[in-house]
Design a protein that fits this description.
By secondary structure, this protein is α+β, with helices and mostly antiparallel strands. It has two domains: 199 residues, Helix Hairpins, CATH 1.10.287; 137 residues, endopeptidase domain like (from Nostoc punctiforme) (endopeptidase fold (from Nostoc punctiforme)). The longest helix is centred in the middle third of the chain and has 98 residues. Strands 3-8-4-5-6-7 form a six-stranded antiparallel beta sheet. A two-stranded antiparallel ribbon has the order 1-2. The chain has ten helices and eight strands. Belongs to the peptidase C40 family. Keywords: Coiled coil, Hydrolase, Protease, Signal, Thiol protease. Pfam families: NLPC_P60. This is C40 family peptidase.
Length: 441
């Protein structure tokens, strides 16, 4: 019994001691030795160095921004030149078609001319037979030359005798000969004129294509030069950003040392408050209420508009191929002699900007030419602030359109942007955009 009572007393005493320990505040921990305290001159020198580095980074950033803006201008120039080449290619194909038709017409005219020559030959045979028969009968009727061109009274008399002597069938033969000669001359003249005009048009189109290709190559070289400058500026900025990071880290280290020293000075007076603040800071934070999800504005659901937009969106992710795309879908690109070739567009199956529009609008039976400049004039123009889903948007440089995209609503558009990219959705870009949209629906 005593032993059991002693154990109970021990347990109560232990419990009381625990309660007492929990109720008594903990003893303050001893403050460690003071940390290093950098001088004001060290802090000032570090801040000055960091400020200088930041200024240089800002200067290089501004230069890079200007260089990138110039690069975008040159990109627009390249796109414009490439569209000029695209237009020249379309015009050349048209001229070649006209030349082929003119050649076919000339060949048809030659066949008719040959037929006319045969008619003349037949008429002459009939006259020869008539003249031979008249001679055998002892009738002097004059010569063929007398009929064809009288130059004296005797010739006129011979011609009159010939006309009086010619029967109805022989007279018909003479008239057929004259008509055949006239037809031959007219056909030859028309065929030569048509062929000359077609040849001229084709030569002009070929020269325009050569000029467009040369201009494209020049613009691409300027773009490459500018891209090299941009890379140099980017490298210089990256180097100064690294130096800035090092300088800021140095200043941050000094400032942290100063802050630690100042904290040490006040540590003894703030121990209780710091412990309370630490306990409060360690308390778990309550869940944050979820904010409202942003509304999604969808384009109008009109049947034709919906079909056109859906067809364009169905090609998202399809690779860009200059000259690619028709009403049935993506096609193999063509050579441009420059940027597109460097990306291997001629070996890719995809769309360029105007090819994507051709495919989208083919879904509602609208046929478009493969040139953004012609597409801009294919429908009704509306002010840009009235653009609606399904409208085509265009970009130009110095009045020359070089890019097209389709507005799909909510400030977004779908486009095939440039070589090396893919069909995508992007916010409407207002730099270089023309002040109207083209509406086909």
């Amino acid at each position: 019994m005593r032993k059991r009572r002693g154990s109970r007393v021990f347990m109560v005493a232990t419990s009381l001691s625990l309660v007492i320990c929990m109720a008594v505040p903990p003893t303050a921990v001893a403050v460690p030795p003071p940390p290093p305290n950098p001088s004001d001159s060290e802090l000032s020198a570090g801040r000055t160095e960091a400020k200088a580095k930041a200024g240089k980074v800002g200067e290089l950033t501004n230069q890079l921004a200007r260089a990138e803006a110039r690069l975008m201008e040159l990109q627009a120039e390249v796109e414009a030149k490439m569209e000029d080449a695209n237009k020249a290619l379309v015009d050349l194909e048209t001229a070649e078609d006209l030349a082929a038709k003119a050649k076919a017409d000339a060949e048809a005219a030659k066949r008719e001319s040959d037929n006319a020559s045969q008619s003349i030959e037949n008429a002459r045979k009939q006259l020869d037979e008539f003249a031979a028969g008249s001679y055998k009968q002892g009738t002097t009727v004059g010569s063929m030359s007398a009929y064809m061109g009288a130059k004296s009274p005797e010739d006129l008399l011979a011609r009159a005798q010939l006309l009086n002597a010619v029967s109805g069938s022989e007279l018909d033969a003479l008239e057929s000969m004259e008509r055949a000669r006239t037809v031959k001359a007219n056909k030859d003249s028309l065929a030569r004129a048509a062929l000359d005009e077609a040849t001229k048009r084709q030569a002009e189109a070929e020269q325009a294509k050569r000029n467009a290709d040369a201009a494209t190559a020049s613009a691409q070289q300027a773009q490459r030069d500018q891209a090299g400058k941009s890379k140099e500026l980017e490298a210089a900025r990256a180097d100064y950003e690294r130096q800035l990071d090092e300088a800021q880290a140095k200043v941050g280290g000094l400032e942290n040392q100063r802050k630690r020293y100042q904290d040490w000075l006040a540590a003894k007076q703030r121990e209780d408050a710091a412990n309370a603040a630490a306990a409060q800071a360690s308390a778990p934070a309550g869940p944050r209420p979820a904010g409202p999800r942003p509304a999604v504005n969808r384009p109008p659901t009109g049947n034709a508009v919906r079909i056109v937009i859906d067809r364009a969106l169905s090609q998202l992710g399809v690779q860009y191929a200059w000259g690619g795309g028709n009403g049935s879908g993506p096609t193999r690109g063509i050579r441009d002699g420059g940027v597109a070739d460097s990306f291997g567009d001629y070996n890719k199956v995809g769309f360029d900007c105007s090819g994507l529009m051709i495919y989208a609008f083919a879904g509602v039976g609208i046929r478009l030419p493969h040139y953004s400049g012609y597409q801009a004039a294919a429908g009704r123009r509306v002010p840009l602030n009235q653009m609606a889903p399904g409208d085509m948007l265009f970009w130009a440089t110095r009045g020359r359109i070089h890019h097209v995209a389709m507005y799909i609503g909510n400030g977004q558009m779908v486009e095939a942007p440039y070589s090396g990219s893919r069909v995508r959705i992007a916010p409407v870009r207002y730099g270089g955009i023309v002040p109207y949209a083209t509406r086909l629906l």
